[in-house]
Amino acid sequence: MVATYQEIRLTRAFVDTVEDLRVRTRLNAPEYDVGQAAGLLRRLLTDSSPLGPRAAKLVGFSPEFRWFVAYGHEVRASGSLQWELDPVAVTALNLGDEAEKLIDESWTRRGSHHDLLGTPLFSLGSPEITLKWLVRHVAHDEGGVHVGMSKDTPERLRRVYESKDRLILVWTLKALGRVVVRGYEPLVMRLVRMDPLYGIAPGPE
To answer: I need a surface site. Which of 38, 53, 121, 205 has the fewest CB within 10 A?
Structure first.
């Protein structure tokens, strides 16, 4: 049970961050919002003391994220993840003859935020660039938190982001945000139910 002032501050910051991420990664979000989403993802998952794991530990919750690793198969053997990271988007967009391949359960990954962020962004090339690198680059170099602050972004990622393919990476970041929101949604609902600030009365015992 959340009790102390510090715990209340933590849980409210977590709920607000997840709900902000939900808005920033809506399907029609402009690139500015997606840049801000990278900062929110950093705050939730990759800071030195990230909000997500701290809030989950406080109430004994183990979030599970579900995503697709679709790029490694014949459909997009040389591409990047784009929206294919998000199983809901893949199902909804219905790709005809290719849909069954994309929705194949063997493509589904389930795991922690470490597993999710460790997913390679590109199917080919070296060095391996993970989703964590994408979050870091957009948050630190592209205006999510700073502008042009990072010194060690892989040159390959920087080149793609500065090219016409940048929008592919924007879509990938949207999909990542949606996967994270979905994974944390049960925890958000639990914390909102516990907090009188949100005006949701506890259900019957």
So the answer is: 205
